[in-house]
Design brief:
The complex is a heterodimer of chains A (about 300) and B (about 575). Helix content of chain A is about 30%, strand content about 5%. With about 300 residues, chain A is mainly alpha-helical. In chain A, α1 packs across α5 and α2 packs across α7. In chain B, β19 and β20 form a beta hairpin. Classes of the chains: A mainly alpha (about 300), B alpha+beta (about 575). At the A-B interface, β1, α1, α3, α6 and α7 of A face β5, α2, β11, β12 and β15 of B. β4 of chain A pairs antiparallel with β21 of chain B.
């Protein structure tokens, strides 16, 4: 979904020639600044105050659409001995995004940006550099208000160009923006109508085969949104019971404890035995299998790289 | 709860107005306010720090270990639809090739420095005199000496390092310039993957060293030590362990009582006097979309090179641009051409535990000599960063690219899940990235797009940029060396049982992705070839200065933010103590 073209340079992975799907974002409020001389009003925009979070609206998707989405979520991340996309509540994540502005009011922010700094999942350290029993409150559950530019951007992202009185800024040049909500409705309708027997009755092989016949932009959108729903902070609605992070052996958000914990008593860092930072992982929970190694060899070769065998 | 108005709200008249609030703005705000000047800081983006101006408590950021917020939904980045930039390689492409974000450094209080993992090396002495050292050997390039020498800037480097809180090890980089003092803090713990890579580099004859970073490795200046949470580059710090301009220089400026900061206030025009040589006011769009004006005695451009140039051009939209008698405004835009290679190892290296980059090596920077196009070793490379992993949503997006891109568009969820569980491209990688010097070119420039506008209807900046053969030669020469160097790491004693799979990333003559943005208002002694003088003041304008990376005449091969911070101290010194800038440090 990110369309950001900035890079500090590290963590750059080889570019695979495939189109991306999305892009976007959005605050507001009312204030007059002391010392400023008002000379004109530049931007008409429907504003409202917002400060705290609110539960998402349900009901954007019909029952049939929800059922189909859950099947597609499992097409992206099938269940095995660990949860699949449906069980991880990827669909709740998607519906929360689609309805992010539904409950916006003077006291409720859109469900776009979870708050900070801490989720309450990790504790503070004590003075000896050990995890304490003192946990911060979860500020992720309080969503943040958007400034005027971010709000406009996110409204266009979700609702399309018609979200703004005069359309998106460069519609005349680039064409109108089709919002994610419409993209989802249209794509789901086609996905539901395009198969007999219905999606829910396809076995895994047929499901994957059918999934790959879907229109590419919609397919990419589903892969992106389901992935986000499976591996997001749970405050966005997905990653139920943190099982998404669990299956990929990722510890998730770690503040305010972190991995190197400062001991005030000793004036040195203390590492966590359960998640070492400076030393090797003692036991690999899921080593590379021969088929994945073969796939990586192919990918590296295709990208013009070199395979070195030990 | 954050606020849009920070500092002393009783202030109504100002000595200095600073446009921007990042690395180039913070030091000017700090030195001006601590010397009794009244300062107005105007920031286009939002404020994500509660209590930034509260002397009774530390700031509380809205930043968090949240991949959706930062990586996917671009919390601190500009919105490319509402705040677009256009891009082309040359006028022959037509008006533009794409409309997108093009090096969209974050717009928010603290500027681009907040998002970064704040790698802060100084430049080398040679970087200040590239024109002298290279002569005319690089054709169709525009190398120029800096109007100041490293020795002029050294005390300002030292001051800024203390103010920001830099960790590092003096003498560890064999190529570092002479220093008057050690780093304020020792290096923090090294990630496992850094140790692995460093050993491999040593076997190839190269020297990895702890990367100087504005990250606390111990309690420092009222802020806590970093705890290596892993959400570093591209993320704001949830505990203020990063010494960004916001929680250091800017906060101290706000606490003096001499500073007012207005967030979500976007400067769209400099109002000039009739002679066109003095700024009389700035015109802004406020948080409600209303147009307002503010006045001060002096003004400082510190909004980043692309936005600085855009503002000068917007302020004389039917003419050549404010301060542009040299026709150099917007020109010599530079990024760093980044060349990377990725190694996938059998072992899990858990690169998500750590500070994104904590080691690097500078052996590929080289020494400036006459450039020979037939000898690519004479093109200067740059510092190489050693890093590791992504987080799982970004990892998933990459696997989707692999599957769709290498299997003719076919996506197999079973294989996708296997990749997520075994995590070759997150938990098992080392990435080396070289920041090679861009040759300055007058044709690489920022101007105004004739059609594309932002949300407020203001003409968008257009970036015309293509790589020079000089930096491509450095990349093509050093890239394979990086691969073979890291192959040594993969097959050496360290990895007796580990296979390494390396792929080199070929540099592309495409939208430049580097967050290292320099030039557009280069400083120099000759007003016919430069925009600003050696103090940072625009040659043509009596009361307008620049204090950010726009001043760079050349780009070096080191990350620019430490030098931007030092330059901002230098400009402040010259504004407050003309001819004796060092007095500001005493």
């Amino acid at each position: 979904m990110s369309n950001n073209h900035r890079s500090d340079g590290h963590r750059r992975l080889p570019v695979v020639p495939v189109a991306g799907a999305l892009g976007a974002r959005s605050r507001r409020d009312v204030l007059r600044y002391i010392g400023g001389v008002a000379v004109a009003t530049a931007v008409p925009f429907p504003l409202g105050g917002c400060t705290t979070s609110t539960p998402a609206q349900t009901g954007f998707f019909t029952g049939a659409e929800l059922s189909a989405l859950n099947v597609l979520a499992n097409a992206v991340l099938p269940p095995d001995d660990t949860a699949g996309g449906s069980q991880l509540a990827a669909v709740t994540y998607i519906e929360n995004l689609m309805t992010a502005f539904d409950n916006v009011s003077a006291t409720a922010a859109p469900l776009i940006y979870a708050g900070g700094p801490f989720s309450g999942r990790a504790p503070y350290a004590d003075d000896s550099g050990q995890p304490s029993t003192n946990y911060p409150p979860n500020s992720f559950t309080t969503f943040l208000p958007l400034d005027i530019v971010k709000q406009a951007g996110w409204r266009v992202q979700l609702f399309g160009s018609s979200a703004l009185p005069n359309g998106a800024p460069n519609d005349a040049l680039l064409g109108p923006v089709v919002g994610l909500r419409d993209q989802m409705k249209t794509g789901l309708a086609a996905a539901i109508a395009g198969t007999t027997p219905p999606l829910e009755q396809l076995d895994q092989d047929d499901l994957i085969a059918y999934f790959n016949t879907l229109e590419i932009t919609f397919k990419e959108l589903i892969i992106a949104l389901v992935s986000q729903g499976c591996f997001c902070p749970p405050e966005y609605g997905g990653n139920l019971d943190l099982a998404g992070w669990g299956l990929t052996h990722f510890e998730g958000d770690q503040q305010p404890l972190g991995y190197s914990v400062w001991s005030n008593d000793a004036g040195v860092y203390v590492e966590r035995p359960d998640a070492p930072m400076t030393t090797p992982t003692v036991t690999d929970p899921e080593p590379l299998t021969p088929d994945v190694i073969a796939l990586l060899d192919n990918v590296v070769t295709l990208l013009g790289g070199t395979v070195f065998q030990s | 709860m954050t606020t849009r108005i920070l500092g002393n709200q009783a202030l109504t008249t100002f000595d200095v107005c600073i446009i921007g609030s990042g690395a180039g703005a913070g030091p000017v705000a700090y030195f001006c306010t601590t010397n009794g000047l009244k300062v107005l800081v105007l920031e286009a983006g939002a404020n994500h720090f509660a209590f930034l101006d509260d002397p009774t408590q530390q700031p509380v950021p809205e930043h968090a270990n949240d991949e959706i917020k930062f990586e996917i939904r671009n919390f601190i980045d500009i919105d490319s639809r509402m705040d677009p930039r256009s891009w082309r390689t040359a006028p022959s492409d037509g008006d533009r090739l794409q409309v997108t974000d093009v090096n969209g450094l974050p717009k928010h209080v603290g500027g681009g420095m907040v998002h970064a993992d704040v790698k802060m090396p100084r430049l080398e002495e040679q970087d200040f005199m590239m024109a002298t050292l290279l002569g005319n050997s690089v054709q169709n390039a525009n190398f120029a000496d800096w109007p100041i020498a490293y020795q002029d800037l050294e005390p300002f480097y030292a001051y800024a390092e203390k103010a920001l809180g830099i960790q590092g090890k003096m003498g560890a980089n064999p190529f570092e310039a002479p220093r008057s003092s050690d780093y304020p803090m020792p290096p923090g713990l090294a990630m496992y993957l850094s140790t692995v890579a460093a050993a491999g580099l040593a076997s190839s004859g190269y020297t990895a060293f702890p990367y100087p970073t504005a990250v606390n490795s111990m309690p420092y200046d009222g802020r806590p030590p970093c705890n290596d949470c892993g959400y570093c580059s591209d993320y704001g710090c949830p505990i203020n362990a990063k010494g960004s301009a916001a929680v250091t220089f800017l906060r101290k400026a706000l606490l003096t009582g001499n500073c007012l900061l207005l967030a979500e206030t976007r400067v769209t025009k400099l109002i000039m006097n009739g002679a066109g040589d003095t700024v009389t006011a700035v015109q802004c769009v406020d948080p409600n979309g209303d147009v307002v004006q503010y006045t001060a005695s002096r003004y400082v451009l510190a909004a980043s090179p692309i936005e600085d140039a855009r503002l000068l051009l917007l302020s004389d939209i039917n003419g050549p641009g404010v301060g542009n008698s040299s026709n150099m405004v917007g020109r010599n835009l530079m990024f760093h051409l980044q060349t990377s290679c990725v190694g996938i190892f059998n072992d899990r290296l858990h690169g998500h535990r750590g500070r994104t980059v904590d080691h690097g090596f500078a052996d590929f920077r080289g020494k400036a000599v006459n450039y020979n196009p037939n000898d690519p070793s004479t093109a200067l490379g740059g510092i190489v960063e050693i890093s590791g992993s992504e987080r799982p949503v970004s990892e998933a997006a990459y696997y989707a690219q692999i599957l769709l891109g290498t299997q003719l568009g076919k996506f197999d969820g079973t294989v996708f899940k296997k990749l997520m569980r075994q995590s070759p491209f997150r938990d098992r990688i080392i990435v080396l990235t070289m920041q090679a010097e861009d040759a300055p070119q007058a044709t690489n420039q920022v101007d105004l797009d004739p059609v594309v506008v932002d949300f407020f209807g203001t003409p968008a900046p257009r970036v015309t940029y293509s790589n020079h053969p000089y930096e491509l030669a450095a990349s093509n020469y050093r890239g394979p060396m990086m691969v073979s160097t890291t192959d040594a790491a993969g097959k050496g004693a360290i990895f007796k049982n580990a296979g390494a799979r390396w792929s080199a990333i070929t540099p592309r003559d495409a939208i430049p992705e580097s967050a290292h943005v320099m030039g557009t208002l280069r400083f120099g002694n000759d007003p016919t070839t430069s925009v600003c003088d050696r103090t940072g003041k625009l040659h043509d304008i009596q009361n307008l200065y620049c204090s950010d990376g726009a001043l760079f005449p050349t780009s070096s091969g080191y990350n620019p933010t430490m030098t931007i911070s030092a330059l901002s101290c230098w400009v402040a010194g010259n504004m407050i103590f003309p001819g004796q800038p060092q007095q500001v440090l005493w």
